[in-house]
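Retry 2 of 3 after timeout on previous attempt. Resubmitting structure tokens to design endpoint.
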């Protein structure tokens, strides 16, 4: 079964998710010319998130070995939004809904107040093509999502039905710090052989593909077979020069196996975080080793129509990435968010964010940083997509062995004892971003607006999508102007994240 994720063209949809209750009210004036409409209010979907029990914490998005600087924010209030198109020929559709299920249509009153923020979207100018949003299918996530169609629907289902509408999956090709035991694929006389843990993850990926046949996959290994690296008795080590040829053959064998299985493999990197060797499965590589590997595998990857991504490490490593792409046939660069700033990515062409995690921050802390840095500033620097770390974790931030990140948070929290599914603040950011921009959309450049990060898209179906966030403790009146269409005016309470489409 394939789930359709996208609404039809010529519709405007406003959605708001927030820490307590997200309420959207909308009133449209005037009918669409020629459609027989009398301008009546229609309905669509908006999510809500359960209330927090305490004010926002000062923890921020972090993961070893580096941390994202903490942010202190005032306490949140119950967010709401009132949306009013001012003499717009487009109809506005609005619902209020709970996550992961339940929705009801609501109406509202005109907004006549002078706008505090004006957002202008001019689709005559576009930038990079958008690949989409997603997260990683770690061993921990695979264990929690196995045979859980409801959890998979929450992550990959249509946003108008309460799902996050994710487009992409990052697939580890070895154990990670979110594994309970260490494993890699094996090389045999007949080629390569996935471990039982890899097979289990691929089985879950099949379930995801049943829910969303269009999901694309980005792959990376965290480590190599022990005989190809230094310190084989330890969980992390450096790739041996004499292991380069075997490691390259392993990567190509993994790609061929995935493609034979029907996986829509879009890209692969040579390895996750080659500049870090730690207390969990890791593999350090030098620039010379990565250049040699790229030269070995690039031609075959081209024949497979799979992109080769350089680096797969932090924003602060952009100069290293630039040297790599200047010296070897890479198709783009994968970045993580744990050091540096998003603007570092502008040094290279075709960047994408393939990993970033939240920890235990409350709504305003986590959503604010994600919307501002991970989304708006990353897209401004040229990012073609955004993937976070774990799709799902349990309430104890696992299951996992010791080492690595001990307080990371997934997009959803799945309790294996009770079976409950709880979306996290990060889920709401990714959901609204997915609603605004489809894979294949063109990013529309926008001006920076004080305390309101914005990203806009011109979608393949002819719609325009806008993602945004009220990154302040004050309610604000927003006026959105898209091309020559009459403006849409609405009010956002503190810390609200939203999307508009039509």
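Retry 2 succeeded. Sequence:
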């Amino acid at each position: 079964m394939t789930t359709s994720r996208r609404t039809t063209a010529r519709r405007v949809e406003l959605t708001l998710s927030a820490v307590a209750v997200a309420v959207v009210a909308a009133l449209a004036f005037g009918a669409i010319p020629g459609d027989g409409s009398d301008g009546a209010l229609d309905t669509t979907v908006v999510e809500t998130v359960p209330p927090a029990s305490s004010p926002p914490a000062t923890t921020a998005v972090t993961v070893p070995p580096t941390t994202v600087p903490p942010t202190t924010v005032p306490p949140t209030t119950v967010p709401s939004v009132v949306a009013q198109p001012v003499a717009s020929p487009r109809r506005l559709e609005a619902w209020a809904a709970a996550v992961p299920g339940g929705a009801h249509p609501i109406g509202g009153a005109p907004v006549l107040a002078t706008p505090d923020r004006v957002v202008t979207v001019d689709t005559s100018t576009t930038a990079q093509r958008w690949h989409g949003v997603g997260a990683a299918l770690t061993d921990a996530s695979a264990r929690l999502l196995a045979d859980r169609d409801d959890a998979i629907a929450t992550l990959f289902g249509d946003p108008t039905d309460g799902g996050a509408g994710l487009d992409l999956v990052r697939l580890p090709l070895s154990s990670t710090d979110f594994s309970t035991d260490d494993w890699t694929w094996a090389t045999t006389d007949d080629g390569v052989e996935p471990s039982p843990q890899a097979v289990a993850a691929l089985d879950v990926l099949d379930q995801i593909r049943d829910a969303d046949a269009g999901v694309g996959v980005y792959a990376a290994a965290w480590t190599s077979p022990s005989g190809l690296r230094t310190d084989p008795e330890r969980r992390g080590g450096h790739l041996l020069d004499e292991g380069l040829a075997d490691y390259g053959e392993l990567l190509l064998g993994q790609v061929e196996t995935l493609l034979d299985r029907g996986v829509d493999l879009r890209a692969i990197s040579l390895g996750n975080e080659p500049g870090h060797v730690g207390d969990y499965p890791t593999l350090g590589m030098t620039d010379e080793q990565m250049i040699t590997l790229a030269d070995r595998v690039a031609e075959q990857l081209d024949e497979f129509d799979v992109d080769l991504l350089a680096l797969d490490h932090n924003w602060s490593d952009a100069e290293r990435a630039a040297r790599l792409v200047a010296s070897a046939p890479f198709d783009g660069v994968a970045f993580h968010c744990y050091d540096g700033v998003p603007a570092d990515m502008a040094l290279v062409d075709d960047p994408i964010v393939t990993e970033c995690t939240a920890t235990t921050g409350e709504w305003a802390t986590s959503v604010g940083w994600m919307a501002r840095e991970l989304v708006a500033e990353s897209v401004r620097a040229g990012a073609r997509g955004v993937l976070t770390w774990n799709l799902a974790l349990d309430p104890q931030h696992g299951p996992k062995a010791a080492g690595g990140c001990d307080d990371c948070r997934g997009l959803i929290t799945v309790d294996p004892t009770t079976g409950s599914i709880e979306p996290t603040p990060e889920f709401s950011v990714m959901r609204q971003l997915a609603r605004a921009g489809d894979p294949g959309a063109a990013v529309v450049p926008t001006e920076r607006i004080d305390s309101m990060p914005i990203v806009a898209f011109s979608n393949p179906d002819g719609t325009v999508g806008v993602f945004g966030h009220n990154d302040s403790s004050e309610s604000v009146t927003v006026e959105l102007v898209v091309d020559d269409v009459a403006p849409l005016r609405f009010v956002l309470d503190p810390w609200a994240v939203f999307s508009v489409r039509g």
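Attempt log closed. The radius of gyration is 22 Å.
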